[in-house]
Every structure is written in C-alpha cells, then in structure tokens.
Amino acid sequence: MSMPSLPTADTVIKTGKTYARDLTERVLTTFLQAFIAGFAVSQPLDGSMWYAALSGGVGAVLALAKGLFARLRSVTNSASLAKGV
C-alpha cells in the first residue's frame, strides 16, 4: 500500500490564510449589512441604535457559524457552502 501524499506546510499555511481572510470578510460585511438594515428600521420606529448593533452582531455570529460549518463539511479554501467555490 502506498501512503497518501500530504500537503506541504507552505500549502497548509496559504490555504488557512485564504480561508481566514474569506471568512473574516464575510463576517464583517454581514455585520455591516445587518447593522445598516437594523439602523434603517430602528430610526422610523424610534428604536435604539443599540438594537441595530445587536441585530448586526447576531447576523455576524450566524455568518461565522455558517462559515465554520462550511469548512468542516468540505476541504476548500472558502467559507462558502457552494461546491467549487
């Protein structure tokens, strides 16, 4: 039996950095989008800006969880659930 070839340390570091950068970008953009949406809704309804920040935080946490789940279910450099990304 032949042993499977393992990736080099440089490859592992590069793919890890790519995944971390992708996931960080997705989490931050989700937070900003949810915050802006929450702010746009809270202003006319006389809600607190802190509720908008909280909704943005919840959205970011969900984006983080989805990105980590995507990493667990496939071996890719992406935080996407889509195949081939």
Question: What do you see in this structure?
Answer:
The chain has 85 residues and is mainly alpha-helical. The longest helix has 34 residues, at 9-42. It has helices at residues 9-42, 49-73. The mean pLDDT is 74. Helix 1 (9-42) runs antiparallel to helix 2 (49-73). Helices cover 69% and strands 0% of the residues. It starts with 8 loop residues before the first helix and ends in a 12-residue tail after the last helix. It has a domain at 28-75.
Mean pLDDT: 74
**Sheet/helix structural class:** mainly alpha
Portion in helices: 55-70%
Basic shape: elongated
Strand content: under 5%
Instruction: State Rg.
Output: 18 Å
Distance between the termini: 33 Å
List the topology elements:
Layout: H1 9-42, H2 49-73
Helix pairs in contact: 1-2
How would you sum up this structure in a few lines?
The relative contact order is 0.15.
Throw out a few tags for this protein.
85 residues, mainly alpha
